[in-house]
């Protein structure tokens, strides 16, 4: 996943940012497209990628006009269904939602603060009935927040 992200960044830089047409890339040269970049309104971008080259999209990333992340979803177990969701503010992740048992229902919520560096709280639905069973809050010291 990380390697693929680097590839995307290289492609973005190489193609320069002023291209307004949608484009797609075959990053591993196997003849099948695996990265799709779509221009959205307000210079936002949607980047979809097939990171394991099985023909199914397993990562979708939305970027704002400054190329900061807005939203990302990934298919961690590569079954074709997204299961990890990331929400961003000013390019920093503020919340992650996870479907840890792959039943297409979120069961872990992680709240992140301090420019994406500290976890302030997490909530878990341990028996997957849709009701949160465990909440853990973390003290984030003021020094960390600075
Ligand atoms: Ca390919
Ligand atoms: Ca895939
Ligand atoms: Ca999945
Ligand atoms: Ca679930």
Keywords:
146 residues, mainly beta, 2 domains, ten-stranded antiparallel sheet, 12% helix, globular, binds calcium ion
Give a structural overview.
- The protein has a 10-stranded antiparallel β-sheet, with no helix packed on it.
- 12% of the residues lie in helices and 37% in strands.
- It has 2 domains: 1-63, no CATH class; 83-146, no CATH class.
- The protein has 146 residues and is mostly beta strands.
- The site of one calcium ion (CA) has 7 residues, from loops.
Strand proportion = 35-45%
Unreliable residue runs: none
Bound molecules: calcium ion
Derived from helix and strand composition plus strand pairing, the structural class reads: mainly beta
Tally of separate domains: 2
DSSP strand tally: 10
Short summary:
The chain is mainly beta and 146 residues long.
Layout of helices and strands, plus pairs?
Elements: H1 2-15, E1 23-25, E2 35-39, E3 45-49, E4 59-63, E5 69-74, E6 84-89, E7 92-98, E8 108-113, E9 118-124, E10 134-137, H2 142-145
Antiparallel strand pairs: 1-2, 2-3, 3-4, 4-5, 5-6, 6-7, 7-8, 8-9, 9-10
The structure holds calcium ion (CA) (4 copies).
Residues 26-28, 30, 32, 34, 53 line the site of one calcium ion (CA).
């Amino acid at each position: 996943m990380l390697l693929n992200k680097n590839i995307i960044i290289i492609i973005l830089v190489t193609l320069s940012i002023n291209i307004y047409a949608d484009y797609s890339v075959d990053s591993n040269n196997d003849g099948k497209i695996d990265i799709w970049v779509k221009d959205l309104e307000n210079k936002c971008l949607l980047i979809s990628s097939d990171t394991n080259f099985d023909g199914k999209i397993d990562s979708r990333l939305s970027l704002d006009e400054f190329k900061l992340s807005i939203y990302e979803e990934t298919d961690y177990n590569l079954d074709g269904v997204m299961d990890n969701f990331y929400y961003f503010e000013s390019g920093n992740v503020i919340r992650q939602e996870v479907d840890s048992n792959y039943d297409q229902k979120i069961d872990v919520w992680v709240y992140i603060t301090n420019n994406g560096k500290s976890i302030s709280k997490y909530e878990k639905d341990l028996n997957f009935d849709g009701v949160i069973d465990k909440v853990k809050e973390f003290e984030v010291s003021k020094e960390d927040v600075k």
